[in-house]
Design a protein that fits this description.
By secondary structure, the chain is α+β, with helices and mostly antiparallel strands. It is built from 16 helices and 14 strands. A hairpin with a 5-residue loop joins strand 5 and strand 6. Bound molecules: iron/sulfur cluster (2 copies). This is 4Fe-4S ferredoxin.
Length: 408
């Protein structure tokens, strides 16, 4: 399930808005006042030392910010027609008041939510004042404004990753947070290019609780063209800002159990999955299959090599190589291979492997090929394929060189 990675409502979340400030969710593009007490310096400084960053972060934490990241603001992270003077960006997260989570959507929850935006803005202006006082010029992206796509920005800064609920998920706060940003004249921000939270969308694929929790069909699961699933955010359906709805946050395991618990569960799930997958890579299984379906490979010349790959495991290949008129089966780690070693590759969904291995007459294999469930890729020219005896092989499978069903 691919994630659409769109924000779950205005302000704290990313807004890929087409035109101006209005996001269409009912919040109306309300503006919070600029509460700065310091003006930008006339001649701003551009360099800060390590000691300064330490002091700055200590001050930010003392104000209540939970995580701080640094990144470059790129045009794709700005809402259309918006502009910020500096691209050097400090991204901040702060905990969302628990009262918002505990209060059902409605006037009261919305008021609490508005207060949370107001508080985030006020504290961000205080931090900006601190920077200005130290000689740096700043500009603020308020958590409620739609100038900057804040969730993707925070993801870029390595603070967390956007989940299926369209919100940033962080180790410290799950999705129960507000985000703000300060663009600043400091050119040597300690920018982090890595993101250790990129596993989150994979967990979301198996979870989907936020989709079920959303009462307004603002999160919709859709089939992708490749048979997968993706969650789409329907902004106009979302009552996050207009009524303080947080159902997609409270239903999320990151908020209920915490990041470390979910990561631990994810690692265990993956280890089990790997174990299950490894069973499907046993050479003796594929040897049996090759022997039972030897007719299929008749006519291939020595040296002809076919690879079988599983969609869910890109790390390993099953190689079937004709040598001394036999078909030898080897399992190879992809990282061991420096160049393409196969002439053709069949890409199979892991869940179909059992059916294929249990079939002695190649019928299932052919059925799946004709229905497009198994994809074929060619790595050598048509002439080379003909020379290696693939013409008859492909015909037997209902494929043709350069034909519609074959990618050669
Ligand atoms: S649960 Fe509420 S806040 Fe979340 S997407 Fe649905 S309507 Fe929006
Ligand atoms: S509820 Fe599940 S699917 Fe939704 S964001 Fe949280 S972990 Fe991801």
């Amino acid at each position: 399930m691919a994630n659409d990675k769109k924000g779950s409502c205005c302000g704290s979340e990313d807004t890929d808005l087409e035109e101006d400030e209005e996001c269409g969710c009912g919040c109306g593009g309300f503006k919070y006042p600029d509460t700065s007490t310091k003006n930008n310096p006339n001649k701003p400084k551009f360099i800060a030392d390590e000691e300064f960053f330490k002091e700055f972060e200590n001050y930010a934490y003392s104000l209540g910010f939970k995580s701080i990241g640094y990144t470059q603001l790129t045009p794709d992270l700005l809402t259309k027609n918006k502009f910020m003077q500096y691209t050097n960006t400090i991204v901040l997260t702060i905990e969302m008041d628990k009262g918002i989570i505990e209060t059902p959507p409605g006037e009261k929850a919305q008021r609490l939510n508005d207060l949370a935006y107001e508080k985030t803005g006020r504290l961000t202006y205080m931090l900006s004042d601190y920077l200005r006082e130290k000689g740096y010029a700043t500009e603020i992206a308020h958590s409620y404004d739609s100038i900057v796509k804040l969730s993707p920005l925070a993801q870029k800064a390595g603070l967390g990753f956007i989940g299926n609920n369209g919100l940033l998920i962080t180790p410290e706060l799950g999705s129960s947070l507000k985000i703000s940003a300060i663009t600043v004249s400091i050119a040597n921000l300690p920018v982090q290019d890595e993101n250790e939270h990129a596993w989150i969308p994979e967990y979301c694929e198996k979870c989907g609780k936020c989709v079920k929790a959303c009462p307004h069909e603002a999160l919709i699961e859709k089939e992708t063209c490749c048979g997968g699933k993706e969650v789409q955010f329907v902004r106009k359906q979302c009552i996050g800002c207009s009524q303080g709805c947080t159902y997609c946050i409270e239903g999320c395991p990151f908020d209920q159990k915490g990041y470390a618990h979910v990561k631990n569960k994810f690692d265990k799930m993956n280890a089990k999955l790997k174990e299950k997958q490894n069973k499907k890579f046993k050479p003796e299984l594929w040897n049996n299959w090759a022997e039972q379906n030897s007719q299929m490979f008749a006519g291939l010349v020595n040296g002809a090599t076919i690879a079988i790959s599983m969609i869910q495991n890109e790390e390993k290949l099953i190689l079937l190589e004709k040598a001394d008129h036999n078909l030898n089966v080897t399992i190879k780690e992809l990282k061991e291979l420096e160049r393409p070693v196969a002439d053709l590759m069949f890409l199979i969904d892991e869940k179909d492997i059992k059916k294929i291995l249990g079939d002695t007459a190649s019928i299932k294999f052919m059925d799946m090929l004709s229905s497009g469930k198994i994809k074929v890729y060619g790595f050598i020219s048509q002439t080379q394929l003909i020379d290696k005896g693939y013409m008859a092989f492909l015909n037997r499978l209902g494929l043709s060189l350069g034909g519609g069903s074959c990618c050669c």
